[in-house]
Design goal:
Radius of gyration: 16 Å
Largest sheet: 3 strands, antiparallel
Distance between the termini: 47 Å
Order of helices and strands: HEEHEEE
Structural class: alpha+beta
């Protein structure tokens, strides 16, 4: 009986859009951020009580944080203000070992519900419900 894990098969490169498959460590993501290719994105917005701590930070291509901020400010904020929602979650979806999410799923609920997805790279860009 083997006590070691089998190596995951390497995924083929995405057929459309950018390829962040090789960004497989925090250090690589932070270097691309310093170079201006990536930017920080807060899963729980600072305006909603999120903190500037590693578990709340993703690295995404420049422009994606503005898209999420627009959703949080123009959709989620007003829904929370009028009591339509009381719960919020933003969950990254990854491809392979990449530290860069290929999509971010945003859900706000209770008592009403709002769901959307920000498709960033890889197979997510081929989805019909793109942002």
């Amino acid at each position: 009986m083997s006590f070691w894990k089998k190596r995951k098969p390497k995924l083929a490169p995405p057929t459309t859009g950018p390829d962040f498959s090789d960004v497989d460590s925090l250090a690589k993501a932070q270097k691309l951020c310093a170079d201006g290719t990536l930017e920080k994105l807060y899963l729980m917005p600072l305006d909603f009580g999120g903190q500037d701590i590693p578990p709340n930070i993703l690295y995404v291509p420049v422009g994606i944080a503005d898209i999420k901020h627009g959703i949080d400010t123009n959709v989620i904020g007003p829904l929370a203000a009028d009591g339509s929602i009381t719960q919020y979650a933003a969950e990254p979806e990854y491809r392979g070992d990449s530290f860069i999410p290929m999509a971010i799923n945003i859900r706000a609920w209770e008592p009403r519900e709002f769901n959307t997805q920000i498709n960033i790279w890889g197979e997510a860009l081929e989805r019909e419900d793109q942002m």
